[in-house]
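Aim 2, interim progress. The first record below pairs a target sequence with its structure tokens.
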Amino acid sequence: MSASFQCPKCGAPLDVPANPGATIRCPYCSNSVIVPRDLRDGDEPEWTELNLASLTGDPEKIQAMRNAMLEGNKMEAIKIFRQLYDVDLAQAKTMVEDLMDGKIVRLQRPGTVSFSRTSVTFGETSGVHGARLQEALRAGNKIEAIKIYREMTNVGLKEAKDAVELMQATLGTPSGPSQPAIPPNPQSTRQVKRFVGCLLVFLLITTLFTIGIVLFSVNQAGNVANNTIIAVSTEVALATPLPTQDPSFAPLALRIGKEGVCGGCFEDLRSVAQAPDGTIYATDYEGGRIQVFDAQGNFVTQWTMQTQGYTTALAVGQDGSLFITQSGHLLRYQSDGTFLEEWLAEGGDGFDDVWPLANGGMAAFRYTVKGDDLAVFDAQGNLDLYVPEAISGQTGDSELRGRVAADGLGNLYTLGTFNDLVLIYNANGKYVNRFGGDGDQPGQLRAPEDVAIDQQGRIYVSDIKGIQVFDSNGRYLGLISDQGKNVFGLYINSQNQLLAAARTEILVFDLPD
């Protein structure tokens, strides 16, 4: 009989497979679950659990960080935390907030923080973020709750959505035990849809019949006054159903890959790009594996980056070399996986995104403790343009995770995922316009992930609603269906197709001319 334990997220019983690694995936809620140490095989590194009173490292820096936390200076605390441990800005932010809320940070090996934490339940929400989450849940504002949960845990959109739905299901008894998530019954769903359809048809017929009676009564009253009798037909004209049409702004042309660990499979696909010769490159958030496909989506080969970390963006230069942002580093590789160089810019902490420019250079989003900056490089890696505080300088609100894209004229478009805004700069770094804003209406943004620009200057932003489309001035044009997936990275190829990294597969859309 195999060993088992419970999923910390949904409470489902989990069987431990033979020779498990550090994590397995829960079949009920799809959460990545850490396998207890005593149930693992192999030589896995030990975990050390630390709280604010038991941090390790430079005593003076630790004391300075504690003082910053006590004074409410979170940004200073984040800066010191990153000096003590090798984590990126988003991870440091989450961990500092956990420590300030009295929670535990898990260290995997000396000097390195492994960003792994137990999912937050309704009964465990505390601190400022926790209060906001509980308020959103009680108000029934699911989308806002998902956004807050992602700020608390730094998990993907699907994990946050699943967790919030689980909290909603147990909201009446927040202290009670969680139950496994049960997938919807497809047969019941079809029955509900048929019932709703029949009800709508019945209401339509009833409404038309009532209007006919009213018109008949009005005509009769007028005719009696004029001593004239007019025959009125009692037939009701029914609406003719229109042919089924795809309401999406752009049709789906191709699906590439599937869930798994094989060649051509993905576990947590976040970044995709395509070279001028049609070769497609894609990578998961963790692991450093770069997978290569031909222009038709057939798997060709794969290779692994020489460093390990969190990959947040991928781009291909005009010479075919790959630019990758990994744990804050902007790295350049040959297409066969040979490491070439690292591009640097003074005055910042790390890079979060990169986008190719028509002149052979690269635009990048750079984060710092004090700001959020745009950096533009020429084809040789020399810094051409630097725009400090490109988002927070215009909004007045801090931005810890930004994305960047550029059009053929060199105009820069930066997405503030915490500000829910796209800000436009011209090629000289001058602020031009903004659009978006937090909300559920078309054109407003909720939990945005990435931004891309096509050959016509249209702007694409992926968020919880799908992929929203805007013209070059930020006017809403339409929506591209995300096919029920969570779309993270976006890329536009030379054939005017949109490539979307959708967690377990690449979606390719044909964009209109």
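The second target in this work package is listed in the same format:
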Amino acid sequence: MLCGRTIIFVTLLGFGVATAQVSSEEDLLELEEEADRSDLMDQLEELKQSPIDLNSARVEDLLQIPYLDRFTAQKIVEYRQQHGNFRKVGDLTVLPEIDPEFYETIKEFLFIPEKGGVPPLQGTLRVRAGRKLGRSRGFQENLYRGSPEKLYQRIDLRLAERVSLGIVLEKDSGEDRLGDLAVFSLSLRDVLNQDHLVLGNFRLQFGQGLVLWNGFGFSKGGDPISPVKKKAAGVRPFSSSSENQAFAGGSYGVGWGRFNGTVFFARTPLDATLGEGGVTSISETGLHRTEAEERKRDVLVEKMVGGHADYAMGGVVKLGITYYNAHYSPRILPSDPVRKHFEFYGTRNEVWGIEYDGSLKNINFFGEWASSLGGGRAWLAGALGGWPGLKLALALRDYGPDFHNLSASGFGERRDKPRNERGAYLGVDVKLSPGTRLAAYFDQFVRPWRTYGVPMPTRGTDFLIKVFRKVNPSLSYYLQMREKIGQKVGEEYDTYGREITVIRQITKRNFRGEIRVKLGSHLQFRGRVETCFLHTEGIKEKELGILFFQEVKLRPFPWLDLRGRMTTFDTPSFDSRIYEYEGDLRGVFKNTPFWGRGRRWYVLASYRLAKKVRVSMKWSETYLDDRDHFGSGTDEIPGNVGREAGVQLDMKF
């Protein structure tokens, strides 16, 4: 049955199904893991709502756009200095480094103020509600304290580009408080002169994330260049719904010529499990649906003080230093002395590090070295090269198993914490012809100490190659292959019939083909086929999974946007799962792992009620052919059909 569907789908691909270019946003967001990247979505939304002034932006300002590298940003600034201000954002296409496809990707993050200037008061309001239509075991057995709806409210106000205020209230399904998550931030710029004061909830992003970095961090994916170097934003107001990601306190930064300095303090409550004598584990879900989850609320208090300073030496090299001292109450206890031998425990930690960032012609070199209390070390060194039609990225990293930092996020195989990992990464993006681009990376990594699931050091490789071809302005396609080799624990029997633990190599290969067609400005089609081959050393049976979808985007009227997708999947197990990033309500991240056998479809509609008022709705249904329930534990919903609905209001004023 599935084979027949695949033949039909490939036939449709032959006629050309879906948009004119591969979305760079999807390249960054489509992860091979189930993770919440709503903080990244919020960052992209913030840039879209408050775009950068093209005629006053510095190189550092332009680098806040995820897709811009230092080489291209410098060319933009140099062109403006030589030829004067841009008359419109579209003039960027005169630069050889910015072709029409790349311009379409970055244009919404830039603007040129009208003669009247920027309005003194600007604001955005977002209200969202959604729910799963089935009743999970948590509701059936009255384990959840609240209603099944998930609610979200956010308001942002900006006054003359100097004052900004953000408030977010969110309630997850099953929680009983309308503002179970409450985020508040106030930002004041140029109170004195070139200074920045932030009160309430804020994020800290310095260097390459080895000392201080909360909030989003890009991961390895279809874009081999952008994720390698973190683009530090310093202190920024926090207005995301990501749980346990924000610091609570205040920060003050000031700039004097080539010098920038920042100091901060924070007293942040964290969810944790309290045992005898202290905290046994920190919870990152932020859920408070049951009595057990409620008992974890704000159990641990993190008190932190620190600062950052950097100095630009002649515009060629920038050096920086970052430090913080943290106290935890109650004490954090070692939860598993064997599996988590090097985990942090105690009441105090301090981390400091030095960073560098410089350019030499077309090469940007960067890095950071950090040390934690007790002598743990971590470092990363990298370089980016940019030439017309060619981009290169190189990164070397060594994160010690005893490097302790609960507020870090470094580039590597582990997206969350830079610890217990060494690796070397090489990425390339080359324009083979006016319509053809090749992107690839190779990453080799070693974990010098055991992980939680494997009781010995392990190693692995990660390789991706992607070829994108634009046939004409209406038709494009790409082919992608990714191979990841790692190790996992297995069980065998020795010659005496005794069960023994062995380490087996596991190889996972994903092949993807996608094609897009744009029929005018009102209709776009898109189709994808992806297969997953999984082989475990010592096991004869190999797993083969397949997923394909077809999608249509339609704009029948200037005030109405429609999007629909149908997905079919068939994979033997969770190990051979295939991920799919899909469109959703603005600001919602959806990267779903598909495994087993079934189908999913959704419809997303966005209706513009007025010039600055938009209503969006989404309905989705998932059918499972090999299971009779969704989820597990208290989230388990009986039946093989899962339905979800959501509605959102966006308003600008």
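The first strand starts at residue 52 and ends at 53. This observation will shape the mutagenesis plan for the next reporting period.
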